[in-house]
């Protein structure tokens, strides 16, 4: 089978970038810089959410499904810098040329990765190939919104209409899957500041598993999987997660069992 890669990012404000672009008083901590910038942005836009190029990648979590089975992991270690995480992610793409699945990847994750790769001088010839080096990529590459080599599941299910977008958490729960556990994206920066990197990494991992489960359901309604094959894929996820001795997966499985009653 073609290897499948589901990915999700967790980001935090780029304090160094905010310093570089603004004349802040010397000696301020990262937290103080971010708080000042958030206050300024709220005053100007009504939202404290920073634009893509000022989102610093803190976590990259992945599901990888191939002939060897199903795996879920977060790349690198909590202390790894942003460039290391991004470089590891694109190395997977360059090596495996996987089918990539995301939820709102086109709207958020990819633009963040594009800008941050530019800042850190990180190359990925396979990802950026649109047919110059491989003719197959001319008609199906990672960059085109309507190609399937990267499938933004939210975008496809909404018929490429932003007005019809659905939250992944709600849709997962409606399909009988656990959905988000522990936190949501708005809580990542406070949790990161509080030293809860492990919790943020765990949260991101559950997000990619939710996305994979929804992708399996999508393949069922599309006719790529019959009901027997679909149920086998879901059981593989269950069996794989039950073998991982980690609190967030124990909570995830308990929630999933409760949803199934």
Descriptive report:
This protein is of the alpha/beta class and 261 residues long. The protein has 12 helices and 5 strands. The chain has helices at residues 15-21, 30-45, 82-96, 105-120, 125-128, 136-139, 153-157, 168-174, 188-193, 197-222, 227-242, 247-260; strands spanning 4-13, 55-66, 69-74, 99-102, 150-152. β2 (55-66) and β3 form a beta hairpin. α1 (15-21) crosses α2, α8 (168-174) crosses α10 and α10 (197-222) runs antiparallel to α11. The chain is globular. The mean pLDDT is 95.
Keywords, separated by commas or semicolons:
261 residues; alpha/beta; five-stranded mixed beta sheet; 12 helices; 52% helix; globular
What's the rounded overall pLDDT mean?
A: 95
Order of helices and strands: EHHEEHEHHHEHHHHHH
Fraction of residues in H or I helices: 40-55%
Proportion of beta-strand residues:
5-15%
Structural class determined from secondary elements: alpha/beta
Tertiary shape: globular
End-to-end distance: 33 Å
Please tally the helical runs, counting DSSP H or I stretches of 4 or more residues: 12
The overall strand count is 5
Radius of gyration: 19 Å
Strand order of the largest sheet: 3-2-1-4-5
Major sheet: 5 strands, mixed
Which regions are unreliable across 5 or more consecutive residues at pLDDT < 50? Answer: none
